[in-house]
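Example 178, ligand iron/sulfur cluster.
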Amino acid sequence: MALSYQEIITRCYCGNGPEKLDKARELYSTYGKSLLAQDRIRASIETLQEAVEALDAHMTAMEMGKNCSVCAATPKGGCCSAYMGHENNDVIQLLMNMLAGVDVRIERTDDVECCFLADNGCILPFKPIFCLNYLCGRIQKESTSAELQKLEVKTGDLLRVQVALEQNIIVALQVDRI
Ligand code: SF4
Ligand code: SF4
């Protein structure tokens, strides 16, 4: 049965990380097969995976992981806080990860760091938009302007595709035949 726009908004954009994950699991089990049967959605997922790979490759080349490790080792920690995990994730974005075959699960319940942060980093290839805001002071200080410019371009490319996929899913959930 299709969902109304109002139902989607009420269901998908509130709650903490584990609550959003439960709702994403529900949507996946009810609508996952029909969503993946749509060429447009499968194609957007593939394009998004390519954009994630391109951004990851650039982040590796500019050694961003080094900066984040230094940051994470300070008393205040890195930027993957519990607040970020609860507030910035949403149900559709978690569902997108599931549609891409990711085993989305709660990695920690300490309420200090994001519940999707594993020992080797974030488990979500498709992250909330705010988590892609990598232009923090440390990264700016440690990178060249050419690296930062390329980072902005690749992040923008990724976000465009991610927003398009989100829209495609929201539209599909409202169609009766789903
Ligand atoms: S993105 Fe910036 S603030 Fe976040 S962990 Fe990395 S260096 Fe620290
Ligand atoms: S990047 Fe991943 S682990 Fe970090 S706050 Fe965002 S969702 Fe959580």
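Summary: The chain has eight helices and two strands.
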